[in-house]
Write a structure and sequence with these properties.
The chain has 67 residues and is an all-alpha fold. It has helices spanning 8-38, 43-52, 54-65.
Length: 67
């Protein structure tokens, strides 16, 4: 196997993808833990909503999900 160093665009894409994944995981974790204490609906349901539609899911949770 030959390892090829990443060029400028590929390195930026990889870094951006990893950062996006990290932000998504943090948003799901925050939503799940917050929903366990501040919501009447199941926390796992809000976590799934945030995974499927991240920006809209967080906005819906903040506006509708919290008591």
């Amino acid at each position: 196997m030959v390892l090829v160093p990443l060029q400028g665009d590929a390195a930026f894409g990889l870094l951006f993808g990893l950062l996006t994944l990290l932000v998504l995981v943090a948003a799901v974790y925050w939503t799940y833990t917050d929903a366990k204490t501040n919501s009447d609906q199941p926390a796992w349901l809000w976590a799934i909503v945030v995974v499927l539609a991240p920006l809209l899911g967080i906005l819906l949770y903040v506006l509708l999900g919290r008591n």
